[in-house]
Each structure stands twice: as structure tokens, then as C-alpha cells.
């Protein structure tokens, strides 16, 4: 028998939000469909009306959160360079990344399971790629670079590199201001653009 069309909103959204909280807190393996349904006051039949499996629910719950994170980043990065400096944009991008990870921590009371954290990290970076590429292109244009074709490859390279830095224990021991200066220096060297582009 074919499944009924999936209805958006209502109980489906409630299940998604509840599932996200439980997955973040307990991890995928330790969160059961029954636990989620107990929280939302639903039955197994209702669950399978909206989702075909726990894996589908997990994927959809993370997509929902990443969509919100991506929209936030896009809004932040949509300002043109003539209204906000590359330095300020970079500062805001790092703050947006940090706040996204903080939200996950708060959502799960600081008990994010490593398997979920890994998925979240990958999805967070993926959601930031389009906005980050716009910023890279703007920086290259400000430096009068004509060939922007490499921005497609520079974007994931730099974004993953920045993420690695922000998660490095020794880098975390450095003050926020010093972190920002180090990141700017590395970006300038990698993009081969003058340091003056990042002056306030």
C-alpha cells in the first residue's frame, strides 16, 4: 500500500524538532522512535505517515536546522563589500559559525554525541559554502584579480581550513583578536591579496 502524501507543518514539524533535540542529546543509536513519539504524544502509525525510517527522520531534522543556519549565514554575507569591510564580514562569519555550534550545545545541554556532532559539522560547512564563496569573490575583485574561476575550489579549501583552526586546541588558547589577525594573515597569503583589504 502506498504511503499518503506527506503533509508539511503541524505534527511533522513537532516530530522533527523533538527528534533533533533527542538526537543531539543521546546520539542516533540511543534515540528510539518510541522515545520521540512519547515526547510528542504520538503513535507509531503517525510516525510512519510522515517518515519511512528513523534514518530519514534524522536526515530531515538535521536538514531543517542546517537550512536555518544557512539562511542566517546568507543574510549575514549578503551585504556588499562597499557597505561592510571584508574584515568585518570575516568577523561576522566566525561569530555566526560559533553561535551555530553554541546553539547545538545549548539544545543538547552540552551533551552532543560525537556521531551527531560530526554530521552537524559537515552540514554546517556545506550550508556556509555559497555565502563564503561570495565573500571570496568579493575579496578577489577588491584586489583586482581578473580570474575568479578558482573561487569554486578555494571556497571549500579555505572554509575547511578555517573550521580546522577554530577546532584546534592550541588555536583556542589564543585571544579572539589574535585569532582574527592570524586568520586574516593566512587568507591574504592563500588568496595572494594585500593585507590592507582587511584594514578597518
Description:
With 200 residues, this protein is mainly α. The protein has a domain at 63-198. The protein contains nine helices and no strands. The longest helix is centred in the middle third of the chain and has 29 residues, at 114-142. Residues 1-8 have low confidence and may be disordered.
Rounded to an integer in angstroms, the radius of gyration calculated over CA atoms is 20 Å
Instruction: Please give the count of helices.
Output: 9
Give the amount of beta strand, in percent.
under 5%
As a percent range, the share of helical residues equals: over 70%
Morphology call: elongated
Overall pLDDT? 81
- Order of SSEs: HHHHHHHHH
Biggest β-sheet description: none
Q: How many DSSP E strands?
A: 0
Name the assembly state. single chain
Q: Name the structural class.
A: mainly alpha
Distance between the termini: 63 Å
Any low-confidence stretches, pLDDT <50, length ≥5?
Answer: 1-8
